[in-house]
Amino acid sequence: MVTLKGNTIYLRALEPEDLEFIYKIENNEAIWEVSNTQTPYSRFLIRQYLENAQQDIYEAKQLRLAICLNTMFDAIGLIDLFDFDPRNNRAGVGIIISDEDNRNSGIGSEALSLVIQFAFNQLQLHQLYANIGENNPISISLFTKFGFQKIGVKKDWNKINNQYEDEILFQLINQQ
């Protein structure tokens, strides 16, 4: 199982004890627009997902890690590598910090830094990408801080509150 340790946080594999945390995130309609969720998830489906969460990234084509403060086990967020493509050495990356008290505190930066290092050093990926809604300046700032570059705009990509919004594609190439 993957555990990545930073100065104030660590990233760990999902555990059965994360059921209620993930249930709360996946069913929070306020963040559905950033997670591409369209319908609620049952505890049953999330339990099944957690039972299969031990699959390695080469099987599942994704890796979801819980973001935890070094002083506790309970998750405060999630960071994902998704659309893992080992043939082309790339993956998408997404992050959510569930508790607003922990946003804008450096936790997202530390988590993203750990995942970038893991993706480039352990997985030997050539590139990471992120899809970010144009009206999400906090995420845009976070990813550009780490060198992600805007490489395209998907026009009218997401329908939010009966209006279409653009989604920006950001990319980070491993220069090593």
Instruction: Provide the residue-averaged pLDDT.
Output: 89
Roughly how much helix do the residues carry, as a percent range? 25-40%
Please mark out the parts with pLDDT under 50 across 5 or more consecutive residues, or reply none. none
- Note the main sheet: 8 strands, mixed
- The separation of the N and C termini measures 26 Å
Number of distinct helices: 6
Number of strands: 8
What does this 3D model show about the protein?
Helix content is 28%, strand content 36%. It contains 6 helices and 8 strands. Helix 5 (107-122) links the parallel strand 5 and strand 6. Helix 1 (19-26) crosses helix 3 (43-51). By secondary structure, the chain is of the alpha+beta class. It is globular and about 40 Å long. The chain has helices at residues 19-26, 32-35, 43-51, 57-60, 107-122, 137-145; strands spanning 3-5, 9-13, 63-69, 75-85, 90-97, 127-133, 149-160, 163-173. Strands 1-2-3-4-5-6-8-7 form an 8-stranded mixed beta sheet. The mean pLDDT is 89.
